[in-house]
Every structure is written in structure tokens, then in C-alpha cells.
């Protein structure tokens, strides 16, 4: 599976002459869903299998041919003795007969070699038939595609995707208007957990991190790429010096930010150096299931990142259990600014930031939707009605990645992605 996404955006003008652009990130790479791409991959696998079979045949034939050549002189001796015996039977005395018998015995290992030749001959016929079938399929694909080279077209599409993705980043932020169908990447771990890629913009870091469970965990698995994560291979393990609480972790610019178990302390752990760079108390923040999301799980403090930087979502006793948003300075973890949303945290299933706006779901169970939005740029809120498919019925982590513009979720032991639709109004210079 491949997760590079073609990015589409549409523009129009409203009644006031303002340019309206809508950014849509479809579910998956279109090329990878093309049946011809699947056919070509299957053909490549078949060609590889045939090549391996031919190598085995070549090696075995070479070995057996050497053996036949080594026994060639012995066969000539046996053939000569048999001719003499047939022409003059009386010349074959007991001693001569024993010698002939011994020579024939030495030729007996040739029998399994000849049997193998018969088997190999059948394999060659089968391979020839497979090659013929492959040729027919390739001809059919070529006729369907005409004069175009499919791989060249695929590379051109990938280049366009990159350019469109770059264009989307230049468009800047937008308002969330839709969430795609879920894309299940993998089923692994327990019911609760979190997984993520680096949220820093820009970044060429393709690593994926997985943190299973919400209670006193210390083991972080780091995978080299998304494909490695999907296959559960090529990973290293980080053993954190302090256990975590909840699932509200985030990776930002090569460091893991997480809530220390049984405290309101935020820890910044650097993956490359495998060391804690800084830790700081989030003043007044509830912890240890004082103010969790509706699903519990010590989810009192939820760390996240968007286009505007690093955030902490939590609540305090003075705020009467309502969600508080604080923007953090990534190096020192100092609180730069704080907003009181007025939304009760225990009524929220999960939340995530996009472009400085906190979006809150009304449940972690089936039927959940994005129900509330708080805009930090205007310190205002509105109730929303943005549905999404909660496929596995128990979301314990939901975070936005601004670099990829997707939602990462941990849903009942499944690692799931959602693409997002953003709506943007660009004012003209005359406005």
C-alpha cells in the first residue's frame, strides 16, 4: 500500500468577488488503485519467480552435465566390454563378468540424474507456457495503453502530486469541512495506544513511531518508513526514562513530547540522542484521570501540533473541567498563550488542532462526529456537524499531522488514517 496522496484544489468567486479555494486530499494515490498497476505488479512477481526457477534449472543442469561428462569415459569402457561380450560370449569369463558388473554399478548414480532431467523438462514446458501467457497479457495492456509508457505516466503523476502538495502548502490554512473514509494501515497492539509521524513543517523525516497502551508505558517503537510500520519490520526500540500517561503524545522536530505518568509534567525526549532535553510542569493541569476524555485512560493532557506550532489541551479545577488550550514554546515548554474554550472535557471523545482551531468530537464510540470548534485567532467557537466513520468503534487517539494533512487515529487496536477537506477564502488585493 502507498500513502502519497494527490492533492486537488478548486477555486471560484463569491458574490462579493472573493476568491474561494477548496483543498481536498483524496483517500489514496490514484495510480495505485488502477487495475493496470496491479496487473503490472503481478506480472513483475511472475517474471521474478520464473527468473528464479530458471536460475535453479541452470545451476542444476550445469552440475548434472559435469557429472555426465565425468562418467563419459566409464560409459565408453562399459560399452566396449558389452560389444566384445555380445560378439564373443565365451570371452566373458567370471572375472570379466565381475569387472563389467562393477563398471555398471558405478553408472547407477546416473539414473536419478536422468530422472531429474525428465522433471526439469516438464518444468521447462510449464515455464514456456507461463512466458507465453505473460506475453499475451503484456500485449493486451500495451494495446489498452496505446503508445504511452505506463511507468513514465506514473512518474509524471507522482511529480504532479509533489507539485500539487507544495501548492497546497502555499495556500496556507483553511477551515475543516469534511473527513474522508477511514484508511486502515495496520492492526496491531492493544485496544489503546498512539502512533504518529513527525509533525514539523518542513521535514523529510519518514519515520513512524508506535506507543502501545496508556498506562505506565515506556517502550516506543521507531520504524524507518510507513511501509516498514505496515509490515512490522525494520524498527528500533526506545526505552523512555520516565513512563507515560494517556495517549496524547506528539513527535515534533525529532522529539517526543509526552505526559509523565501520575503528574502534569510534560517531557521532551530527543530520539537521536535518546535523552530528555527538558521537562516542565503544566501549571494547574489535571492528571491521573481527573479530567480525561470520555473514554478515560489517563487522557488528561493531550499534546498536539499543527501549522502554528505545539499545543497542549487539558483542563484545570479553576476552569471547572472545561477544555483549556495552551500554545507551548517547543524548546522550553513555556506556555505562550492560553484559551478557555468553555467545552467540558469529559463530554469530548477526542480533539485535534488544525490551523489554530481546536476540533472536538462528541464521542469516542460509533456514531461520533466533530461537534465543536474553537478558533484561537478570534477566541470564538461554534458547534459543527462533521461526520466521520468510526470503523472500529473505540477511538483512543486522534491527531492531525500538518505536514501530511491527515488525521492519525488509534481505533480499537487498529492504526487508521483520515484525509481532510479544508475550505479556504483568499481575499483579493482590493479587499
TrEMBL record:
Residues 172-424 form the Olfactomedin-like domain. GO terms for cellular component: extracellular space; synapse. Disulfide bonds join 173-355. GO terms for biological process: signal transduction. Transmembrane segments: none annotated. It is found in: Secreted; Synapse. Keywords: Coiled coil, Disulfide bond, Glycoprotein, Secreted, Signal, Synapse. It comes from the Eukaryota. The keyword ATP-binding does not apply. Signal peptide: none annotated. This is Olfactomedin-like domain-containing protein. It comes from Oreochromis aureus (Israeli tilapia).
